[in-house]
Amino acid sequence: MLRRGRWVVVAAALAGLLFVWGPSPAPAQQRGGIVNWFNYGDPGRLNVFNVAALGQQQAVAGVFSGLMQFSPDEPSKIIPDLAESYAETDNGRTYTFHLRHGVTWHDGKPFTSADVTATYDYMLDPANKGKRCTALMKPVVKSYEAPDDYTVVFHLKFAAPTYLPSVASAWCRIAAKHILAEYKGNLDDPKAQIGTGPFMLKRYDRGSLIEWVRNPHYYNPKLPYVDGVKQFILKGTDRQVAAAKAGQIDLWDTWPPMSHTRAMEIKAAAHDKAYVYEAPINSTWEVHLNWKKSPFNIKDIRRAVQLGLDRKQLFDKGEEGSGTPCAILDPGLYGDYAIPMKDLMKIPGCREDKKAEDIATAKKLVAKHFPNGVDFEIVTRSVGTYVDRVQLVADQLRKIGLRGHIKTYESAAGYAAYAKGDFTMIGTQDSGVYLSDPEGIFTLLFTKGAAHNWENWDDPTVAKWVDEALRERNHEKRVKLYRRIQYYLLEKDNTSPVIGWVAGWFYTAHRLKNYHHANTIYDNNTFQSVWLEQ
Amino acid sequence: MFKYVVRRLMLFVPTLLGVTLIIFLMVRLVPGDIATILVYDAGSLPADEAKAQVAEVRQQLGLDRPIVVQYLAWLGHATVGNFGYSYWEKRPVADIIGERFPRSMELAILTLVLAILWAIPLGVISAVKQNTWADYLVRVVSISGLSLPLFLSGILMLYFLVAWFDWLPPLEYVGLFNDPWVNLSQLIWPAIAQALYISAPIMRLTRSQMLDVIREDYVRTARSKGLGEPKVMYSHALRNALLPVVTFIGWWGGRLLGGIVIMEIIFAVPGMGTGLIDAVNHRDYPTVQAIVLLLALIFLALNLIVDLLYAVMDPRIRYA
Q1: Widest pairwise Cα distance in chain A
Q2: Above 60 in pLDDT, residue B243?
Q3: Residue A27: what pLDDT?
């Protein structure tokens, strides 16, 4: 009896020790509180299907749900959203989504498959000026149908590995059929923001505030943890930094990313209440050479630009070192799809140890055609740090005999000029992919008709490989294809030499818990699983 | 007097017509129109598709019509108070103005009141205490206020508040009638920052006018009658010295409207200034035209009020 009692005491002591020294349980999520966030501009329009700017997308990001979503907890993972599950058949050419039962719109009406088909009817209607989701879906989706209220079947033109990431992307949300009908597709109206998302749009005080409140009927009754989210409309970095320093905003995960200097300022001002971090954003920084205009109609001159640009120096001076020089795909974001840094740094034009040699070759290539150098116009849009950056680019090119005379455009006027091919060289441009898939950057920059292929460059080899990669479902083969395209673009001739992949600095307040930086600045803006330490 | 006011009001018409014409042409001279912006937004469409969409949007908005037709159509509607529909926000321009105008006016009035409240007394002190430390201090303050660009004084004000008080005015704009105290805590800082700038020349002009006036015979006479110095200064000298100052404030008040734009952006006040900047950036022609027209009207009205104040302040002036 005594012996048994002794064992009980020992077991209790061990249990006590485990309690004290054992792994501590994950802190319990707390409910309540308001997340204070900011929007860099006044969105003006709210139709998530017809807009392209982050400021407009983030305005209603928490209001709508998609069929699938990128996991807020693991940003690379695709998880169900309005679809409870899905099945892939016909070798990836058919996707059947089984929808959740009991989901309601913010106005109380039930969500069914008719809403999904109505959304796709709207997005793919040629009369609709659809932007990002339309651009993702049009090339891939052949047809769709709803056999019953809780099933939707999509038939694809080909088995596209990009389809599911597109469905999960922040742009491909589902709208209510009755709202689309009532507002005749004008979803810009704040009253038309009836979604199924974790939050409901409470008010849009133009120029000042966008406020969401918790959706009490969200399909996951445990979420969201916070009572609401406030997006203050703050224009200009000075105002944004001041608000961060004063602790008025809980996170800075949006555009524009901060410079290292600004981040350190905030860190110092916030004492121990926030932490700052560097993360790649979904953009490359590149220059564009118009191959129809002199001097870039000469292959050697295009090659000279590839060799003559010192990408590391450009990032060091133009972006305070934030970014990955030479990367067409960032290794941190795209893993094995990207060329590893050690290999990237061996490529002529990218290799730091032989930079002088590459610059000398570039000089020779220019001198071969223009012994006294050549003058041309180099343009940029006057946004962000572009005007500073273009001067650095012009300065480097001048050293190899390419004398660019800078002209700046107001943003939209610049895009209009680019679209008309009315430029000789675009001295700096970021191309932001809106899909967390390696395909994004290639079909944005390097294929014929791509949105940022303003010089209308057409390389059949690149087009063929990009198309192959787009259709390839085997991961290993796809990796090989994308690596091959990257090497080709860095080593051979093309009109959009990439300076590198852009990164930036961000911050979150310590009181904000369970926030994970997403792979694109568009994703994970729903705040459905963050919580605030009270 | 009545005839004078009527005549001045009638002069508003050609002036405003001129303003509408200039602004109508100027916003269209800026490269890129709303169709371009809507379609090339973030450069997200293939070039061919985008070109077709630009043409379509232009047609929908009537931007493909001859510019004279566009102008006359807009003017016809504007004369009956219909400023059209915002291309960007897709709602009546009158709603945008109705929402933003009171906020900007509140900020402008607060700024002007603050500026006058300290500029005139300090100008008087500077004149009365000429070549003393008080005079030097006031002159240094006024020159500093004038030398600092508005955007810089605004940003410095923000950083001062953060660095010294670890505080900034609430980010969420609160209307005057919703919570006057919070509203004041939001608007007082941009008002102070801008008042520093606009008070400087008022202060200097008050000083120089006072220096002239206090040497006049009638001031000497007032003193010789045995009036106390405060009475001499404020009843005899200041009243006469203020005449040109009032004119100047009327003219300078117009400059205030330009500064409001900068202050609204820095201090996140959703007023007409930020609305105008957004409208210009989006080439939202109806909104730009309506806001500029309203600003021109305010400027003209300010000048008229100043002229009328003249008669009140100087009984010798009569408008025939």
Answers
A1: 103
A2: yes
A3: 62
Mutation target for B interface from A248, A262, A435, A445: give the one with most B CBs within 10 A.
A248
Rounded to whole angstroms, the Cα distance separating B198 from A11 reads: 80
Nearest by CB to residue B172, choosing from A53, A230, A416, is: A230
Query: pLDDT at position B233, please?
Result: 87
Structure tokens at A360: 């000398």
Query: CA–CA separation, A254 vs A508, rounded Å?
Result: 11
Q: Which two tokens stand for residue B230?
A: 């405060």
Q: Measured between beta carbons, which residues in chain A are less than 8 angstroms from residue B172?
A: 205, 208-209, 230, 232
Name beta bridge partners: A409.
A381
* Highest mean pLDDT, choosing among A93-102, A419-428, B304-313: A93-102
Indicate the pLDDT class of residue B60, thresholds 50, 70 and 90: confident
Beta bridge partners of A88: A95
Nearest CA among B304, B94, B287, B115 for reference residue B201: B115
DSSP A358-376: HHHHHHHHHHHH-TT-EEE
Answer whether A491's CB lies under 8 Å from A461's CB.
no
Distance of CA A469 to the CA centre of its chain: 20
Q: What is the DSSP letter of A421?
A: T
What band does A12 get if pLDDT is binned at 50, 70 and 90? Answer: low
Looking at residue A70, what is its pLDDT?
Answer: 95
**Cα B257 from Cα B250, distance rounded (Å):** 12
Ramachandran area for residue A231 (φ above 0: left; ψ -120 to 50: alpha; else beta): beta
Residue B45 in contact with partner chain A when CB distance is under 8 A: yes
Return d(Cα A508, Cα A268) in angstroms, integer. Answer: 14
Confidence of residue B47 (pLDDT cuts 50, 70, 90): low
Amino acid A139: pLDDT: 87
Strands A34-39 and A228-233: parallel
CA distance A433 to A522: 10
pLDDT confidence bin for A415, thresholds 50/70/90: confident
Judging contacts by C-beta atoms under 8 Å, the chain A residues touching residue B107 are none
Structure tokens at A442: 């290639």
Summary mean pLDDT of chain A: 91
Which pair of tokens denotes residue A298? 């000469």
End-to-end C-alpha distance for chain B, whole angstroms: 6
In a 3-state reduction of DSSP, which class is residue A289? strand
CA-based end-to-end distance of chain A = 49
User: How large is the average pLDDT for residues A206-228?
Assistant: 96
With an 8 Å Cβ cutoff, is A205 touching chain B? yes
Instruction: Please indicate if any CB of chain B lies within 8 Å of the CB of A238.
Output: yes
**Tokens at residue B229, please?**
């110095």
